[in-house]
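Q: I have 335 residues here and want to know how they pack in 3D. Can you give me a structure?
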Amino acid sequence: MFTRRQFVAGSLATVMTPLLKGCSQPQSEPPRWEQGAYRKSEQSKVAILKATSYDNSLKDIILRAINLFPLDIKGKTIILKPNLVEYDPAGVINTHPAVIAATIDALRSLDAREVIVAEGPGHRRDNEYLLTASGLHAVLQEYRAQYVDLDNDDAQAIPVNSYFTGFPRFYFPETVLKADLLVSLPKLKTHHWAGVTLSMKNLFGLIPSAIYGWPKNILHWAGIPNSIVDINSALSIPRFAIIDGIVGMEGNGPIQGQAKHCGVLIFGDDFAAVDATATRIMTLDPRKVDYLVFADRFFGNILEENVLQLGERIETVRQDFTVIPSFRHLKSIVS
């Protein structure tokens, strides 16, 4: 384990070493998924539920979705990981505070022992500013919920189960590793480097910027799709995704895009399947999103025939999200 005072010299050198050896290329060692470390299920479930606005009905919608999955909530410590990046007066960059509030309320009503909101913003170092400006601080006060700054939390090295970055391990915050369940609460957005940013990309915020740099520089140098997959393969605690697609972002996301009303929340415990479904809702082809193609090889399902769709049908909620020119090839989906 590294404490905040101990990691600066030692862990940075450890993290940088693979980069100096060309970490963007996968290592020659056989991937652990071929050794049985990861065996994906034959079928995954994803639920799409309509949520037309950020009103008081969100708690009931979230409870209805949770009942569709075998989630063990009672007596558990649960981490909520929202997407908190920058302050945006229009409210389309970050996970809406109402979704976070409704999730806290829903999980407590199911007798969760503790619900902790945690984030490691990659752009802003001033958490207090982001919390206040985004409206999340008011939610934390109202629900008396604990918030943890993951960028500066004590960290522990966890082995990676895939080799897309070349990193043998990632440092994860101890607050996350001690939890019984991790809930990823991303915003439904396009991304100017990854194509889309959803539940899997949202886990970038678990990686401490105090070790990996702002804005997670080392992960960017190693390649964003590579880093997304390796981070997700390393983390073994149970997880669940709730994507805020009530109002998403299209165009030059994840910060400079335009608001896109979609009117849905998307749920599931297979992050690859959830992200693939969300991508189809955006009228984009998940089979052409690099990190989803990688994930489908060993720990998630992205093909429609391997996903049991619950709730709304994709075609009834689909919205035509625009993308920047370099990702126009994602728009080729027909069905």
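Q: Anything worth noting?
A: The domain at 40-332 is CATH 3.40.50 (Rossmann fold). Residues 4-14, 17-30 have pLDDT under 50 and may be disordered.
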